[in-house]
Write a structure and sequence with these properties.
Serine Threonine Protein Phosphatase 5, Tetratricopeptide repeat; mainly alpha
Length: 312
């Protein structure tokens, strides 16, 4: 009996010692856990599909579509996981999407004429890595020399980088391709004289919106068009507020007071001011402008508007 009790006691001691060791080891591991960057958790491409080109028994197109669809889901998933209320669609580096370019590169190696993948890369990659965007677009031009649209996107990327000379060259080259629209020649001329103007920017984004082939391209172009239109509206509103301040000796109590002065104002691109049911002047996203009476300026309502308060 005594021997049985002794064995039981030894067993209990062994179990407790084991738990103690596991607890201590767990604490040690937690204290010394290696910190890795957030993008480490992205699963690397399990297979470089482009290596199968010529060996896929005619299935290259299907493989290209798979990489293309995965690239869309990849960015969409990262945006969905983001906790930011306002996302600057022209600066997506915070998403750390290191696999986007490899996916698009694989897709376009398998199908060199996949224009949707090239276009998507030209629209999204500049917000992540402009050099990757340039590389992919040059690849598109090499594989599709008859496509003036790729020169349009190349010009857009260089314009974003404020390299107006290279942007002009891209539009010039594209305008020489058979079937290219007058828009290409017009943009080349505009870039030579007023490369950084809002007028040039608006024309560029409007053309992209008109030709958008996916939701991301539509979102990007619409976002920037709204921002440009709001900047133009605020210029007019603030000019009228300044005139009111000078004539009345005080800032108006609300923007509604200057509405009568805006009825005959023509905004760029033939636009007009809009108002909501309460008579408040609204920005292009439909949110009412706010009046900062201390500065006597119209401001964006950051709580309800999708337009950034300051231009990038």
């Amino acid at each position: 009996m005594r021997k049985g009790k002794l064995n039981l006691a030894l067993t209990v001691v062994a179990v407790l010692a084991g738990f103690g060791a596991v607890y201590g080891l767990t604490n040690f591991i937690e204290r010394n856990r290696v910190s890795v960057p957030e993008d480490y958790y992205d699963s690397d491409l399990t297979l470089e599909g482009k290596r199968l080109k010529g060996f896929a028994l005619g299935s290259e197109g299907l493989l290209a579509d798979w990489y293309w669809m995965r690239s869309l889901q990849y960015i969409g998933g990262k945006l969905a996981q983001s906790e930011l209320e306002h996302i600057d669609v022209e600066n997506l580096t915070f998403l750390k999407p290191r696999l986007l370019y490899p996916m698009l590169d694989n897709a376009t190696d398998l199908d060199p004429q996949m224009m949707a993948a090239y276009t998507y890369g030209a629209m999204v990659l500049p917000a992540i890595d402009p050099q990757q965007a340039i590389t992919l677009t040059h690849k598109a031009i090499a594989n599709n020399p008859e496509s003036w649209r790729m020169y349009q996107y190349l010009g857009y990327i260089h314009w974003r980088l404020k390299d107006y000379e290279k942007a002009t060259q891209a539009y010039d080259k594209g305008s020489q391709i058979a079937g290219s629209p007058n828009f290409m020649r017009m943009m080349a001329a505009n870039l030579r004289t007023k490369g950084g103007s809002r007028e040039t920017a608006r024309a560029m984004y409007q053309q992209m919106l008109d030709e958008a082939q996916d939701l991301q391209a539509v979102s990007n172009a619409t976002f920037r068009l709204n921002e440009i239109d709001s900047l133009n509206e605020r210029d007019v509103l603030n000019a009228e507020l300044k005139r009111s301040l000078e004539s009345l000796g005080r800032c108006p109590n609300s923007l509604i007071e200057i509405v009568p002065r805006l009825r005959n104002v023509k905004l760029p691109a033939g636009r007009e001011f809009r108002a909501d049911a309460a008579g408040n002047i609204v920005d292009p996203s439909g949110a009412p402008y706010l009046l900062d009476r201390d500065e006597c300026e119209a401001k964006i309502d950051t709580a309800s508007s999708t337009i950034p308060p300051v231009s990038n």
